[in-house]
Amino acid sequence: xxxxxxxxxxxxxxxxxxxxxxxxxxxxxxxxxxxxxxxxxxxxxxxxxxxxxxxxxxxxxxxxxxxxxxxxxxxxxxxxxxxxxxxxxxxxxxxxxxxxxxxxxxxxxxxxxxxxxxxxxxxxxxxxxxxxxxxxxxxxxxxxxxxxxxxxxxxxxxxxxxxxxxxxxxxxxxxxxxxxxxxxxxxxxxxxxxxxxxxxxxxxxxxxxxxxxxxxxxxxxxxxxxxxxxxxxxxxxxxxxxxxxxxxxxxxxxxxxxxxxxxxxxxxxxxxxxxxxxxxxxxxxxxxxxxxxxxxxxxxxxxxxxxxxxxxxxxxxxxxxxxxxxxxxxxxxxxxxxxxxxxxxxxxxxxxxxxxxxxxxxxxxxxxxxxxxxxxxxxxxxxxxxxxxxxxxxxxxxxxxxxxxxxxxxxxxxxxxxxxxxxxxxxxxxxxxxxxxxxxxxx
Amino acid sequence: xxxxxxxxxxxxxxxxxxxxxxxxxxxxxxxxxxxxxxxxxxxxxxxxxxxxxxxxxxxxxxxxxxxxxxxxxxxxxxxxxxxxxxxxxxxxxxxxxxxxxxxxxxxxxxxxxxxxxxxxxxxxxxxxxxxxxxxxxxxxxxxxxx
Lengths: 443, 146
Description:
heterodimer; A: 443 residues; alpha/beta; GMP Synthetase, Chain A, domain 3; nine-stranded mixed β-sheet; four-stranded antiparallel β-sheet; 21 strands; B: 146 residues; alpha+beta; seven-stranded antiparallel β-sheet; globular
């Protein structure tokens, strides 16, 4: 147990030249890289050639980073239409590896990497690990899945670039995770926030927390709330950091927050972020929420230009207290995909999580939302686990708890909710991405 | 000498085979069920049991991923006579104590009524003061075993 307080925090910056670069110098670097990536895409990818022609733009029109707004957007549908290798900008023999999404919506989304792309990926994750205070002295227990999913490999490459020790646990088998975490002396661990919470609860239950050397948690791949972060931090006495990425762009390491936890620093020398209004496609001002759009400024294998992520966030270009000039994107409220319109009201799973955690210790933030349509009316059922401490043998008390949860959810979401209490530890803990919503409506 | 006995309570989701799972875990671990009550609502059930070893019962259920809790209850001994339960209840009501729930089981010569109340000590006082007796844990957990 080695809790870190902000008072004796020593900020480490892996690449101060880039991470603290002045806006003008950065814009010049980004402009140079944009010109290059647009040329490569136009000349080597038929899809981009045609798309730019249709939009009446030529590589010659792109001279600086400001010119990015002249370029057309790329969407997830475009990736799907060119599955698997239709957007490749290098010969297949130069593709070093392929990763993919967990494929929650059907077909896989494939992301090929050149050897240099892999190095950039590791470098960006290493910047994040350094941001979290880790050095080559650290032992990083990676319980993200290893496989097509980018989580395991991404953190592994990051640990390698940092010179730290990686323990490639992969996901699953919580008992073995706990044993290795203790025996091998992990100082940091990386996994999804929902699995982190499950692991933290299991460690606490086994009375193992005080025997750990853990000081840092690196968590991402699903949206999570500040309340969830505080819960994991308080159980394990560590600092948790939010890491963001998507496999199309590079996987984890596109952005991560620093100790000040006031937004996730985007490595914008490689991944240029824009936030747009998803309806009008106009640029949002700083602090305005919109859809995050990325252009990969250095990617060789599959460059993406103005790729619409469907993730909702806002951006802040001011210099952070940590000294970095890398812009910060706010913690995610969710993806446009996860958002459900229920009886005309926008509902995000993260809102449910926040509401449940606000009730206090009684309710575990493990939940499942089920949306049905009965007699042309949307019905939202939220399955909530009753914590062992609140479990009662009296039906009256359980009903009172259920009514209280329903009232808190109604207040938070603005629609009435059916609450179904379920047995503790019965909602599936995810080892990859937690499935929080089942929509049974035939829309 | 304890005046209350421990009841093993299990929250059951209404899904197929759940009760069977709980019972087979207990059976497989040689835990005898002396008395049982199953309350149900539209969404879930509450299984309440008096068993031969409540602590071990809770432990083996936990090992099998089933959450349960132990609750202190009073087990009233009522003679097999018409009106005896009514008389006991009358005394409790007069004494102004609330009974949360109750269930009964036969027990050789006597019958027994398990009661959950907010004030078990007072209930026992009232009952003993009016000529009734309660089971002690050591007797209740092994009753009906031949």
